[in-house]
Amino acid sequence: SRHFMQQLMSCLQFWSCCCLSLTFLQLLAVTAALPPLLSSGDVVWIVSVIIPVISVSLVAAPTNLAVMNQATGKNVVVLNKQIFRYVVLYYLCKFIPSVVVILLCGGLALASFCRDVASQHNSSCIYIYPSEITIVYKNSTNYDGQRSWEGWGDHYADSLNAVQNGIAFLIVLYFCMISISFVHRMYQLWTKNPLTNRWWASSVFVVLVLQVVYGSVSLSGSREASRGPGLKDIPAWLWLMAFIWPFVLIPLNEVIKRREIRVNVRYQKRARLEFGTKLGMNSPF
């Protein structure tokens, strides 16, 4: 039961950090004056399907026999600077770098699309938004005559949808890579293979396949005649940067995990010392 509760705690911690990362991503996108990098449907899909599947699979890790030798401290929850520092260093630092990389990929992809549109139509590009001289007819029933605003909103909605689907896949991929450090919390990657948790390995494969299917269905629902650039127009160097990041992310998280393990080892020594001291003080001998 102690092993189950530890794995359940890891599950809830990973779940909450993923949801918080999505919030940070959308907030940073608004702060940087970018369009939403995830549509409302993408957010609902990731929060209600992808994250729960990965998180729940963490509970199925093989039983750690060493858990019975761990000392338990007092169940005192006090929010202070030390707890805040611990959460920031050992939880948020595993997710925030990926959020920044995703934000850069989304912004650079939109900037590349904007330059392509500007060169094709001899128009200007304001920040990452294409600007065209349009004629608006008040009583027109034509779609082109009723465009509400310049940018990605109407004329190039399919381009924005393509970027959002690409960002959604990167988020799912990065969450899968981050979850590696949550499979065996007290062991490094080279000490205990995360693939020993077969439920987690199967879940990672399933969510990646589901995300590809979801993105394909979303892209197939685009307008018949797409007028703007799509995924094939994203520069190769940007794809390379996006898919190289997981090879940096895994070692980075293992370094953070190593520091986290050291902190937990010090906590175990302190808990044993405190227990031994109190036992000696209350002993009748």
Topology:
Blueprint: H1 2-31, H2 40-57, H3 81-121, E1 124-126, E2 129-131, H4 157-178, H5 180-183, H6 198-220, H7 236-281
Antiparallel strand pairs: 1-2
Helix pairs in contact: 1-2, 1-3, 2-4, 2-6, 3-4, 3-7, 4-6, 4-7
InterPro entries: ATPase_P-typ_TM_dom_sf (IPR023298), TMEM94 (IPR039720)
Transmembrane segments: 43-67, 88-113, 167-187, 199-217, 237-256
Signal peptide: 1-33
Helical content (DSSP H or I, runs of 4+): 55-70%
SS field, number of helical segments: 7
Classified by CATH, the class is Mainly Alpha
**Radius of gyration, in angstroms, nearest whole number:** 24 Å
The oligomeric state of the chains shown is single chain
The number of domains is 1
Secondary-structure class? mainly alpha
**What are the low-pLDDT stretches, counting only 5+ consecutive residues below 50?**
133-140, 143-148
CATH architecture: Up-down Bundle
CATH superfamily: Calcium-transporting ATPase, transmembrane domain
Order of helices and strands: HHHEEHHHH
CATH topology: Calcium-transporting ATPase, transmembrane domain
Number of strands: 2
Q: Strand content of the residues, in percent?
A: under 5%
Distance between the termini: 34 Å
If strands are numbered along the chain, what order do they take across the biggest sheet? 1-2
Average pLDDT over all residues: 81
Shape verdict? elongated
Largest sheet composition: 2 strands, antiparallel
Keywords: Membrane, Signal, Transmembrane, Transmembrane helix
InterPro entries: ATPase_P-typ_TM_dom_sf, TMEM94
Signal peptide: 1-33
Transmembrane segments: 43-67, 88-113, 167-187, 199-217, 237-256
